[in-house]
């Protein structure tokens, strides 16, 4: 198997992008981007450390949980999780991030690229609290590029069509997966029960 190792070699396999895909990239958050983010309950954050080790982490909450501070700045609250901090530690080493915002049922997505920093500012954490529970920290993203992404991936995958979804009971539960991967002595049902209890107690 041969691999493509240069930009020129890669471009030989693709047409040049048209004017539209190039011109649609904005350097700020316009009213359409603000509206999209305000309706989005879910975002993926891509990052990498200085050695090039990459990570993508999901962040989800009530629609509009990512705050638009101004035309160039976003604030993403960090709720309780597994404390691995893969993405957050990446950001400390390398601030470059890529964001992908979703709205359920909508095939188009919003892409935002920029540089991120982490803050534990009390005033901002209080602003982003849910039911009186403050996020642990907040990711501040300075926007460098912002643009809408077309629907083809979602159309091909039929992601939002329930009739295309696999039956959930044909797949293992997380408890079953963890029992096997970690060689746990507990039953899968016990692990699943513990996970459910943790979700209820530490969602925010």
From TrEMBL:
InterPro entries to which the protein is assigned, alphabetical: Pyridox_Oxase_FMN-dep, Pyridox_Oxase_N, Split_barrel_FMN-bd
Domain of life: Bacteria
Alphabetical list of SUPFAM superfamilies matching this protein: FMN-binding split barrel
Domain named Pyridoxamine 5'-phosphate oxidase N-terminal: residues: 29-133
Entry-linked NCBIfam families: PPOX_FMN_DR2398 (TIGR04025)
UniProt protein name: Pyridoxamine 5'-phosphate oxidase family protein
Biological source species: Neoaquamicrobium sediminum
